[in-house]
Amino acid sequence: MSSPGVALGVLGGFAATVDGRPIDLGGIRQRALLAALVVAFPGDVSGERLLEQVWHDVDDPKTSSLHFAVSKLRDRLSPQRPRGDEGVIVREGSRYRLAVAAEQIDAVRFADLVARGDRLREQGAAQAAAEAYATALSCWRGSPYADVADAEFVRPEVARLTAIELRTRKALLQIRLDQGGSDDVVEAAERLVAAHPLDERAWELLVVALYRAGRQADALAALRRVRTVLDGELGIEPGTGLRELETAVLRQDDVRLLGTAGVSPGPAAALGTPSATSNVPSPRTALVDRARELADVGAALAGERLVTLVGPGGVGKTRLAVEVCRNGGERPADGPWFVDLAAVRADALVAATVASALQILGPGTVDHLATVLAPRECVLVLDNCEHLLDGSAELVTALLERCPGVRILATSREPLGLDGEWVYEVPPLDECAAVELFGVRAAGVVPGWTIHDEVTEPVRRICTELDGIPLGIELAAAQLRVLSEQQIAEGLSDRFALLQGGSRTAPPRQRGLADAIEWSYRLLDDEQARLLREVAVFAGSFDIEGAAAVHGSTPPLSVLPPLTALVRRSLLRVEPSSSPRRYSMLQTIREFALARADAAERDRMADVHRRFVLRRALAAVPHLRGSRARQTFDALTADIAEHRAAAASALAAGDPVYALELAGALYWFWYRRGHIREGLELISAALDAVERTGTAVAAATLSSALTGLGGLTYLAGDAAGAAAVLGRSADAAGRGGGVVTEAWMRSWWAYCSAITGPSDEFLHAAHESADVLRREGAVWQRADALLIEGMILRFLGDPQRAQQVLREAVATAERCGHGWAVGSASWTLMRTAMDVGDTDAALDAVRVMQPVLEAERDVTSWLVLVHSAAALVARLGTPDVGAMLLGAVRALGGRIGFLPEVMDPVDGPREAAVVRDALGDAEFERCASLGAGLDRDEVSALLARLCRTGHVGAQPELSGS
Q1: What pTM was computed for the model?
Q2: C-alpha to C-alpha distance for 62 and 67, rounded to whole angstroms
Q3: In 111, 130, 444, 839, which residue has its Cα 20 to 30 A from 70's Cα atom?
């Protein structure tokens, strides 16, 4: 039941009225309490959470403080309520809520009116939408929750409401512009850019309004102002929308500026954010023409399960595929997923690359990938299939046969040749569209560039001679930095004369695109051209260190001049937001550059690339178990395409020893980040090649690779197989005089052996290993050995001694920054505490483990923690949440081919049984299915709450959060 006489205002300073009379809400606690209740509206909020939010600055707030504050607030908001009537603030059990209607809270009324305006606008009722927007904005008195804006719990709501207010003002201005307004819109837009000087869409509205008011000079002045603001505040250039608008103003393009298309898309598009379950890239430039192609391909993809876009390189197949995905209406349950195969060198790596892009990091086989994707519904974009037709066809066939919810949009220079394939040939641009594209790109290169009578003829010649291929046109337009339009056109003609002796069997369009690249290549000096050929060896992106390595430059910065020249001429692209900066190359340009290198140069580049990749991986090893572990793992992730290419290149060249050396450097990265299957397959292939050819391998190299094979085999659930491999690793280390590695591997051999049958023999081996490592001063290895000794003591039923040794392991690991050992020893302490029913001690262990694993962004051990935490949560009285955690582990682990229950066949099933037995099978599966929808961040938030409060709350609150 609501209280009709109460009105609450939070848009600005707090305001409340009762029957139209303003009331005093009291001190800051009462205001914060009311804010917390409004934020939760129309839901309720627990008393415990209110204490956290309102009394956050008090170490141990008392429930009585909350009761007193609620009572005071009730008295002020419901002064005439009957005795026993709770009035505006209703308590149900331990939870509180506001008993008011939505229209009695200005923030709720504001958001509802905006939503109504959005619906009306989508239906074409612009005037009614404008009225709804204007009414909503009349509610806005200032910054939301101004009295308590510093409170952490209110910040997300402030950000949400502020964003709605900004986009509502822009939507209202757009409608008024479309209705013919100008002077009044100019005033409103000036106020908007003054309040939000970094919002480019607000500036777009101002520019268009000024132009429509007949103030072209002022419109250009506004464009200069925003350029100054963006450069001064952010150090960036205006975006594509403003640059293209500037071109339109200079050209007095009334079609663009006087129509409803003068400004970027409206509020629905402006608010749209890519799905958290999609990785489709956001283009940085506007798509020119292609409306018919978008409609044709979109309709085909809606009805067919395999659509392949074919055409010559550079015709725009990738861009069309991206736009089809971004502009599609109804979408599957997840995706679309974009997989760039351009960096892949071998058919055998297609499945692994697709799995990585879909966050299925482990599987490296077609069968495993098809199994994981079988229950999912998504659109999968396979980009650049032409050099991997066999591998792509094999994968696509399996997915179509076994994954009924998966639809595939492929791009290739030729069809995949499969039954049921719908092939669409992407045509070049016609002359009008090609000239328009040249003009748009030219304006981005030379500010203020416009097409006029003197340049029309050479621009048309350029577009015609480049066959309307977008890549060639864009490369030609980029040359306006140094040449005129006439020079560009004449250069193309001269180039054709030089290439008359080329292959007559090549398709004309391919010759035109090759000519465009050849011409750009001819503009490079010898050093720049050599660098272009050399960096083409990189399978993915690379940094300046990589460029210097293949170029033979010392120090690395000495390669900057030719590298900058390649970026400037659009032959290399800078990867946005990369730090250190990384560079990439279009696949067509990469192929062109590789073709310009002779066989000897290609062999030399491949050899230099392999040595660089190995050197970089080896340099990372000392940091993998220290304070820089997170940064090192992230850096290795950025280089993963190079690891794969270098390993494949080495095996193809008959150098399995290199593959073993690389695996020895990367295995801990694979272990921690979940690349299990990939590592197992590479090491196994290299060992098979060594055995088959009788190649000699240094003992240290063999031991390191076997260490990786053993660890990954353990994660895959084969403890006995892992023990055998780790024993071989210890033997190899011993032969090579590696005392530390031998002792370290003996401890791991003891652990994997003890999983299936613990004994005093394995305990003794672990203890002896720890002693050897102590004498050798091998700190992080000793932390591992102590951890293993503690694990085996727990297996043998001696929790007291286990806890003692495990605490020593934690302390040892903390001294050297070995976060994984800190986490794993704490994990075993957690299990040991649960063995004896000590949930407080188990919680303390989680509090140590969780932040360590989060800090290093661990994957496999984090999943193990969540699995064990599920049993702890169940014992703390919320088995439904425990089942959700297990469902999350099952879903997230399944994506990388790793499940804690398989890795740990003893404790893993027991932990799951604790949760299942508390709920029963049906309820367990229901809750687990809910948990399968959680992402890692949501699960981590639950763990953080568990660490902070000792519980995670009830399932209904969790699923609604």
Answers
A1: 0.57
A2: 9
A3: 111
pLDDT at 674 over 90: yes
Q: What does DSSP say about strands 582-584 and 378-383: parallel, antiparallel, or unpaired? A: unpaired
The one-letter amino acid code at 133 reads: Y
> What sign for the dihedral angle of Cα 379, 637, 718, 911?
negative
Is pLDDT of 494 > 50? no
Band of the pLDDT at 516, cuts 50, 70, 90?
low
Exposed e or buried b per residue across 362-371, where buried means at least 16 C-beta atoms within 10 angstroms of its C-beta: bbbbbebbbb
Whether 446 has a pLDDT exceeding 80, the answer reads yes
Say if residues 39 and 157 touch (Cβ distance below 8 Å): yes
Better-scored residue on pLDDT, 867 or 255 = 867
CA angle 54, 60, 65 (to 5 degrees): 50
Provide the H-helix boundaries in 583-655: 587-595, 599-620, 629-638, 640-652
Identify which of 129-133, 203-207, 601-605 has the greatest average pLDDT.
Answer: 601-605
Residue 252: which region, alpha, beta or left (left: phi > 0; alpha: psi -120 to 50)? left
* Backbone φ and ψ of 238, nearest 5°: -60, 155
Q: How confident is the model at residue 840 (pLDDT cuts 50, 70, 90)?
A: very high
Q: Is the CB of residue 147 less than 8 Å from the CB of residue 162? A: no
> CA–CA separation, 361 vs 898, rounded Å?
10
Phi and psi torsions of 835, nearest 5°:
-60, -35
DSSP code of 406?
E
- Residues paired with 334 in a beta bridge: 378
Sign of the Cα torsion 790, 794, 797, 799 reads: positive
Residue at token pair 């066989």: 599
Give the closest residue to 669 by CA, choosing from 700, 702, 699, 642.
Answer: 642
Region of 425 please: left (phi>0), alpha (psi -120 to 50) or beta. Answer: beta
79's CB contacts (< 8 A; 6+ apart) are 18
Q: In angstroms, rounded to a whole number, what is the distance separating the alpha carbons of residues 857 and 853?
A: 6
Mean pLDDT check: name the lowest of 286-290, 492-496, 644-648, 889-893. Answer: 492-496
pLDDT grade, residue 266 (50/70/90)? Answer: very low
Residue 511, pLDDT score: 40
Distance CA 678, CA 685 (A): 11
Q: Please tell me the distance from the alpha carbon of residue 680 to that of residue 352, in angstroms, as a whole number.
A: 13
**Is 52 buried (19+), middle (13-18) or exposed (0-12) by CB count in 10 A?**
middle
Q: Are 266 and 162 in contact (CB under 8 A)?
A: no
- CB distance 696 to 715 below 8 Å: no
Q: HEC states along 202-231?
A: HHHHHHHHHHHCCCHHHHHHHHHHHHHHHH
User: For the residues of 347-393, what is the DSSP string, one character each?
Assistant: GGGHHHHHHHHTT--S--SHHHHHHHHTT--EEEEEE--GGGHHHHH
Q: In angstroms, what CA-CA distances link 118 with 174, 199, 563?
A: 13, 20, 48
What whole-number distance in Å separates Cα of residue 632 and Cα of residue 624?
6
Residue pointed to by tokens 């919680």: 843
CA distances from 62 to 31, 45, 48, 66, 861 (A): 18, 17, 10, 7, 38
Rounded to an integer, what is the distance from CA 424 to the centroid of its chain?
A: 30
CB atoms within 10 A of CB 907: 22
CA distance 370 to 354: 11
Q: Determine whether 622 is exposed, middle or buried from the number of CB atoms within 10 Å of its CB (0-12, 13-18, 19+).
A: exposed
Nearest of 746, 751, 740 to residue 773 by alpha carbon: 740
**DSSP code string of 707-732:** HHHHHHHHHTT-HHHHHHHHHHHHHH
801 contacts 763 by C-beta, under 8 angstroms: no
CA-based torsion, 297, 299, 301, 306: positive or negative? negative
- Angle 550-553-556 (CA atoms, 0-180°, nearest 5)? 100
Give the tokens for residue 362. Answer: 């482990």
Give the whole-angstrom CA distance, residue 782 versus residue 771: 8
The owner of tokens 């949440």 is 881
